[in-house]
């Protein structure tokens, strides 16, 4: 989970080892939480690729509001949540807000700093 265009779908594709999710430079490409079963070393997992979450005040579109609700519901379905942060932009207030939501959910957390070399 993370803000729009921090690389959540690209990271999911890398973990899967294939281009399963559409990736585009325009924010809002992922509109719904996508549940993807995978197997690694004989164990089964489900990855959930989520829509980017912007600040509440910047969300005006009904579809985007629905996307945010689905993203927050995906946290409840997860055992571990990866919060993806864009290294070029640093940690934003929105990242901290998402971090607080994840911590309050009681889920395990992995912080991913992406676009380090971009």
Blueprint of the fold:
Layout: H1 8-16, E1 34-40, E2 43-49, H2 62-77, E3 80-86, H3 93-105, E4 108-114
Parallel strand pairs: 3-4
Antiparallel strand pairs: 1-2
CATH fold-level name: Rossmann fold
Are there runs of 5+ residues with pLDDT below 50, and where? none
* Net shape: globular
The main β sheet shows up as: 2 strands, antiparallel
What oligomeric arrangement do these chains adopt?
Answer: single chain
Radius of gyration: 14 Å
- Can you identify the CATH superfamily? P-loop containing nucleotide triphosphate hydrolases
Provide the CATH architecture.
Answer: 3-Layer(aba) Sandwich
The helicity comes to 25-40%
- Whole-number total of structural domains: 1
Strand fraction band?
A: 15-25%
Q: How many E strands?
A: 4
Termini Cα gap: 20 Å
Return the CATH class: Alpha Beta
Strand order of the largest sheet: 1-2
Output mean pLDDT.
86
* Run of helices and strands: HEEHEHE
| SS-based class | alpha+beta
State the helix count: 3
Domain EngA-type G: 1-118
GO biological process, one term: ribosome biogenesis
Protein name: GTP-binding protein EngA
Family: Belongs to the TRAFAC class TrmE-Era-EngA-EngB-Septin-like GTPase superfamily. EngA (Der) GTPase family.
Offer a concise description of the structure.
The chain has 118 residues and is an alpha+beta fold. The chain has three helices and four strands.
Structural features, described:
By secondary structure, this protein is an alpha+beta fold. The longest helix is centred in the middle third of the chain and has 16 residues. The chain is 32% helix and 24% strand. The protein contains 3 helices and 4 strands. Belongs to the TRAFAC class TrmE-Era-EngA-EngB-Septin-like GTPase superfamily. EngA (Der) GTPase family. InterPro entries: G_ENGA, GTP-bd, P-loop_NTPase, Small_GTP-bd.
